[in-house]
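can u do me a favor
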């Protein structure tokens, strides 16, 4: 597994584009309204069919890292150590992910474009690059984030670094003399270039920076003439001296190469070398796709004092892609009770008319137009109605519900308190949140004032009605404010004329009311988890109080006391809580780890074979922890939540096969051969064969005369050790099958001609041989574990393994521990597949979304190391096998060898490795037939 670069701190890019860290992709348009930004990538996402509203770029930006004597490359706070760079130099994605740094480009926006964007509710931004035949994904991994604020775009992405890696070409390739102590990467010219600090060659004078050149099609090509650049092939030695005959531009001065060098005796340690990377980007903006006209109140006072100037604004919005003309509109402004039209109304915001009824000449594509009505508040409530294209015929519209704006309960003389705006968040790891807040920031009053006549009697009675009017826009069957409760709002029954209330709201916010219910395995998956699910908790209040009063009147015959009642309304108002629920339920897949699938030393002469293969995947159930939050923002009742996705456990399996010759054929025949060489004729000396004792054959390795016995002999061993990962600790089929495959690959072979008890000429397998004149045609034969009998049906091969001797098999089992608890221990191999850990490359899930997985209890995984030692004995009973007396003179062989093993025919995971090459010759001798037994008889 590759090492992680641990020495890179947060990357902050200070070039002409300054950086700012931001993971939000929206900009504030006002106190309550936000702009939704959708980021799409050239070549990966479909370009929207809506209007293009502007473009920024191309922007030519770059960063430049220089090498330092401390053994690292650095630009600003980016540090890449030499001993880590080699791990990722050929993979820009892995290098970028290992650095895990984000750069943010701060891009000013043209005033006109910015004003256009500010009026939108949604904008789509296409990110592209001007690099030829390249995509924006070649410059950054992942999708960049974009934020717009203060007439500035903040473009944030994770940069990639590209180096040339073809043909094993390095800077050292071009040197005539000397070697480099440090690797100097060659920047891929498609993405940048190397830079050099040029010094005077004969003394330490800094002449300035020069730009590099590299041609991938011809790596030895020099820089173009008079370009002032330097190609790697133009550096002639490890001291950094340049080849003669060209000029370079150091700063602004042209210098002869024969007087110049890269650095001053620093080049061999990568000194005076830089890496320049280009990030040219272009941004294209697209507006909203809806074709609709809508009218809504921009300004609508809830109350006003009589005689006060009232300004009511209607915002007309067009999302048509073309200009619409001559659109009818109509204002109706009248008193609520008397239905009297208010005559003195000033209409503002139109170029050609100031009438309450008429046409709007033009509405441009994606235009928002605000029309104002200005009038003086009468002594009674006022109803206002505005319509735009009410019939929906010019232009044609489908949705007409938003073409009419009504003031509802009208503008009242009574003061309406300003809405109280607030917000609560349900964070990624919160299941529910208890909240408590004051209904209003000021007193809510009902003021009866003085009695209309006479004196007050009794108490004022009534109530302030507080209602939860929230509408769940995700599921109408659910609430937004659960366990809704109002405190500090007693029923009115008091001897007062000024009644004051300060209610307090208590409620519970539940995650499942926002479409995400992981407790019941109903998971919501958002395209961008940084964008919250938003709903409003709306509470309005209104009410009145009444009180009786008495007064005396003269009725002609005396005074009469009369009792009446009057009422006053509380200030109506509304409390709006914007509730943002942040949702993240894990990513479907975890970045895959690299595991080796290969056979090492897989040559037909190697007695040791090492197998490495990726284990089979095992499904693991996971959990995460989520909590509840009380009114004091304290987390409690932490709850285990089943993960949405199962994880696949895989790991590096391995095996090793070691063959050895315990007793060679040569050693088996040694006693008999030495007896013949020494002309020792005692029968006991010829234990395994009769060799020719004639002096003429003393220097022949293994001379025999046909017709005598020559018993097969030899003893061989092999050891197989496997390490596998399994959910149970039982003996593995992988190991057992591999042992059997290796046993069955063993061959003991000879082309000698034998005679069986039926006086037939046979080969070692007891197969009859064809006669050839006075002798027989040889035919090589082998005995194997599966066909172990030979001449006369004698068992000539014995396998000794765990079935015969249990001690030949050993097994070591290590359970990979895990815990559901945050403070518990979980083995690194689990963390490789779990989200929210550095080991799996998903630590951002924990840092950004408070999401971390644990292996669910009750599941096991074991590392199982098994070893089997096998011995194969040839002719274990040393049975006499006679050669045929008519076997022709000549050279014959006896050998032990190992056949190829085709793992693809097995049912185990290592079948992907294919063929294990056998061993052509494990053991072998040459037998020379120098006559016949008849020579000794006659």
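np, heres the sequence
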């Amino acid at each position: 597994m590759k090492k992680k670069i641990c020495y890179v701190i947060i990357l902050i890019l200070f070039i002409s584009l300054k950086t700012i860290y931001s993971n939000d992709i929206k900009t504030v348009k006002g106190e309550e309204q936000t702009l939704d930004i959708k980021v799409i990538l050239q070549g990966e996402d479909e370009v929207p069919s809506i209007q293009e509203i502007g473009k920024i770029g191309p922007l030519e930006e770059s960063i430049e890292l220089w090498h330092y004597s401390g053994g690292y490359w650095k630009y600003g706070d980016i540090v890449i150590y030499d001993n880590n760079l080699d791990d990722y130099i050929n993979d820009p994605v892995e290098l970028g992910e290992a650095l895990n740094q984000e750069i943010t480009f701060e891009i000013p926006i043209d005033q006109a474009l910015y004003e256009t964007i500010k009026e939108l509710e949604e904008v789509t931004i296409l990110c592209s690059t001007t690099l030829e035949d390249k995509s924006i994904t070649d410059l950054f991994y992942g999708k960049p984030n974009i934020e717009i604020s203060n007439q500035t775009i903040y473009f944030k992405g994770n940069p990639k670094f590209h180096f040339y890696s073809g043909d094993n070409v390095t800077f050292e390739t071009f040197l005539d003399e000397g070697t480099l102590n440090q690797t100097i990467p060659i920047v891929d010219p498609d993405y940048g270039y190397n830079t050099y600090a040029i010094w005077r060659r004969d003394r330490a004078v800094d002449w300035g920076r020069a730009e590099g050149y590299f041609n991938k099609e011809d790596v030895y090509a020099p820089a173009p003439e008079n370009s002032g650049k330097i190609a790697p092939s133009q550096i002639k030695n490890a001291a950094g001296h340049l080849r003669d005959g060209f000029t370079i531009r150091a700063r602004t001065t042209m210098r002869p190469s024969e007087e110049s060098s890269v650095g001053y005796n620093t080049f061999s340690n990568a000194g005076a070398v830089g890496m320049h990377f280009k990030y040219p980007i272009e941004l294209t903006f697209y507006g909203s796709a809806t074709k609709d006209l809508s009218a809504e109140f921009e300004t609508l006072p809830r109350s006003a004092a009589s005689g006060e100037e009232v300004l009511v604004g209607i915002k007309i919005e067009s999302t048509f892609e073309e200009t619409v003309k001559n659109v009818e509109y109509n204002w109706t402004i009248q008193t609520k009770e008397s239905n009297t039209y208010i005559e003195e109304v000033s209409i503002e915001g139109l170029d050609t008319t100031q009438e309450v009824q008429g046409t709007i000449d033009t509405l441009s594509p994606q235009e928002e137009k605000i029309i104002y009505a200005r009038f003086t508040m009468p002594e009674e409530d006022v109803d206002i109605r505005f319509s735009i294209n009410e019939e929906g015929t010019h232009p044609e519209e489908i949705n007409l519900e938003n073409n009419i704006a009504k003031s509802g309960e009208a503008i009242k003389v009574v003061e309406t308190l300003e809405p109280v705006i607030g917000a609560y968040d349900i964070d990624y790891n919160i299941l529910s949140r208890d909240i408590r807040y004051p209904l209003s920031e000021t007193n809510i009053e009902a003021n009866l004032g003085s009695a209309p006549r006479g004196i007050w009697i009794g108490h004022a009675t009534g109530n302030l009605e507080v209602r939860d009017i929230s509408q769940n826009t995700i599921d109408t069957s659910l609430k937004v404010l659960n366990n809704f409760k109002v405190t500090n709002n007693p029923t009115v029954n008091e001897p007062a004329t000024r009644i004051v209330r300060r209610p307090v709201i208590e409620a519970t916010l539940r995650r499942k009311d926002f479409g995400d219910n992981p407790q019941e395995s109903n998971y919501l998956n958002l395209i961008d988890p940084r964008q919250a699910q938003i709903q409003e908790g709306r509470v309005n209040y209104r009410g009145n109080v009444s009180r009786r009063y008495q007064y005396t009147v003269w009725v002609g015959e005396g005074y009469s006391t009369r009792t009446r009642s009057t009422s006053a309304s509380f200030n109506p108002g509304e409390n709006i809580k914007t509730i943002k629920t942040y949702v993240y339920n894990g990513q479907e897949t975890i970045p895959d780890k690299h595991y080796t699938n290969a056979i090492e030393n897989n040559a037909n002469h190697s007695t040791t074979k090492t197998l490495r293969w990726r284990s089979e995947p095992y499904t693991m159930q996971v959990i995460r922890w989520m909590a509840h939050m009380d009114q004091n923002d304290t987390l409690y009742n932490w709850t285990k939540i089943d993960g949405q996705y199962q994880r696949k456990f895989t790991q590096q399996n391995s095996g090793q096969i070691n063959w050895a010759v315990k007793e060679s054929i040569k050693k088996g025949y040694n006693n008999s051969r030495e007896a013949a060489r020494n002309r020792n004729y005692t029968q006991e000396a010829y234990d395994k064969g009769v060799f020719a004792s004639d002096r003429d054959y003393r220097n022949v390795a293994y001379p025999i005369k046909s017709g005598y016995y020559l018993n097969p002999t030899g003893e061989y061993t092999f050891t197989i050790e496997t390490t596998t990962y399994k959910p149970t600790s039982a003996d593995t089929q992988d190991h057992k099958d591999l042992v059997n495959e290796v046993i069955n690959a063993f061959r003991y072979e000879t082309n000698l001609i034998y005679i069986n008890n039926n006086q037939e000429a046979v080969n070692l397998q007891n197969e009859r041989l064809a006669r050839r004149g006075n002798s027989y045609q040889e035919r090589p034969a082998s005995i194997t574990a599966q066909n172990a009998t030979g001449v006369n049906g004698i068992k000539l091969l014995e396998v000794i393994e765990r079935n015969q001797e249990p001690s030949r098999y050993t097994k070591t089992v290590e359970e990979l521990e895990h815990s559901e608890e945050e403070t518990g221990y979980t083995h690194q191999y689990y963390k490789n597949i779990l989200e929210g850990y550095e080991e799996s490359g998903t630590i951002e899930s924990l840092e950004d979304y408070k999401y971390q997985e644990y292996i669910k209890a009750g599941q096991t995984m074991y590392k199982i190391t098994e070893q089997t030692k096998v011995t194969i004995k040839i002719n274990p009973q040393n049975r006499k096998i006679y050669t045929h007396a008519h076997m022709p003179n000549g050279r014959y062989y006896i050998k032990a060898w190992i056949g190829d093993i085709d793992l693809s025919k097995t049912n185990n995971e290592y079948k992907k490795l294919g063929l294990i090459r056998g061993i052509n010759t494990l053991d072998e001798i040459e037998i020379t037939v120098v006559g016949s037994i008849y020579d000794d008889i006659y």
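Confidence is low (pLDDT under 50) at residues 1-33, 553-558. hope that helps!!
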